[in-house]
Amino acid sequence: MDVLKEKSGGHSIEANVQQQQQQQQQMPVSLVQRCNYEVIIPNPCLATGKPAWPAESQFSTALHGVDVLQSPDEPKTAFRKLKVRRNPIQCPDADCQGTCFVSDILSHIISNHSTVTIDRMGLRQTRTCFLDANETRLNKAKCHQIFVVQGMIISAEGDALQHQLPVLLMSARIRHRDVIGHCRSGSSVPECEQLNDDSQEMLLLWLTSLKPTNQRVLGTLAVRAPDRPDTMMVTTARTYDIRDSHELGALLASPSIMIIPHTVLQRLSRKRKQLIVIQAQIH
């Protein structure tokens, strides 16, 4: 009888272990992304003799329980059909006053902004690019790159390139005096002259796209110097609505904007002598 009890107990333990393994295998993938602090991204400007591209992703997945991740509204198909307004939009680039329809955003960029790079990316797929801080504009928004998100459809006509969600990587430089206002009449001249140089400049980075009415589009931006892990900054928020104002006041009031102070900008770019590594994800 004792032998039979020991055997039955062993079978129950094995069954519990198998059941736990099946539950772990059935756990869905988390939507939470964390940034890897220790990986050094290679600098493409350095002749190291090793391939510097593609850079390793800085994002890793953090697992959570099934009750946190499951959502009854989560689509079961491979593509997400987004409902967006169809009226024309104005180009967010400050030097361009053109307007275009939703399906013609890529055509407008190719025709009028030849320096902007267009890249495909999947949902929760990391894309890496490099930014020269000297190419950003003072008090003006500039488009540097477009990510065409595969899996997010903005038109019922099909899943062609022009019918997929475009996400624009934008930048702008701004001085502190433009945020807090001009110098008061009673201010001393040396204080005003001190605010005129670029020591008080900040860099703004953000992802802008169409704003669907049926679901949210979240974007994650991570910036760092190629050889300094302690310079990393990460922001996750809803993408900035491309129809909203791109004036400095509206940008600074939005939680979708990454604000890089001047001291951090100097460390990121080594006083604008080095490219800044930018990684983006849409989820």
In words, what does this structure look like?
With 283 residues, this protein is an alpha+beta fold. It has a single domain (31-65, 78-179, 194-282), classed as Apoptosis, Tumor Necrosis Factor Receptor Associated Protein 2, Chain A (Sandwich). Helices cover 22% and strands 31% of the residues. It contains 7 helices and 15 strands. It has helices spanning 2-26, 66-69, 105-112, 176-180, 189-196, 248-252, 262-269, and strands at residues 32-35, 59-62, 80-81, 89-90, 99-100, 117-122, 127-131, 142-153, 164-175, 201-209, 218-225, 228-238, 240-241, 258-260, 276-282. Strands 3, 6, 8, 9, 10, 13 and 14 form a 7-stranded mixed sheet that branches. A 4-stranded antiparallel sheet has the order 7-15-11-12, covered by helices on one side. It has a two-stranded antiparallel ribbon with strand order 1-2. The longest helix is centred in the N-terminal third of the chain and has 25 residues, at 2-26. The termini are far apart. Mean pLDDT is 74; it is low at 1-10, 24-32, 37-41, 63-77 and 182-195.
